[in-house]
Design brief:
Length: 141
């Protein structure tokens, strides 16, 4: 069982330097444990190429190498993972793909949220902890 300590900023008013720790276990699921310019860490492993992450699968070298290379086929491939929601991390900045690229997800009633990579990593971890069937598609090119 993997364990991770979460530092929260829930500090009592009487002591502004007090912090509260929460133990979080991943139960063998894939979690983002770090991110930065050109990389993400999943369960402590550094990944530098675009990646798809689900609770139980890590698909490295996703062919969508950068935002400009996104195609309808890249989004159609996500259908095989059968998610309820896809989080698309578009790099350091938020950029929205053209609607025709994501049409198949919409037709399959799969939600799509677009955000920068840092937000995608944080949101994925929260949704996974809630038991949601989520895929993070992170562009690292």
């Amino acid at each position: 069982m993997k364990k991770r300590i979460i530092l929260s900023d829930l500090t009592p008013r009487s002591n502004p330097f007090a912090v509260k720790f929460h133990l979080q276990t991943s139960s063998g699921q894939n979690l983002f444990t770090g991110h930065g310019a050109g990389y993400v860490n999943v369960n402590g492993a550094r990944i530098t190429k675009s990646v798809l992450v689900t609770g139980d699968r890590l698909i490295e070298n996703w062919p969508a190498t950068d935002f400009e290379s996104l195609s309808a086929d890249h989004f159609a491939a996500l259908l095989d993972l059968k998610p309820d929601l896809v989080l698309l991390g578009t790099g350091a900045t938020l950029r929205f793909p053209r609607p025709e690229l994501t049409r198949r997800l919409h037709e399959a009633n799969i939600g799509l949220e677009v955000m920068d990579n840092a937000a995608a990593c944080r949101t994925y971890n929260i949704l996974l902890a809630e038991g949601r069937n989520v895929v993070a598609a992170v562009l690292l090119g």
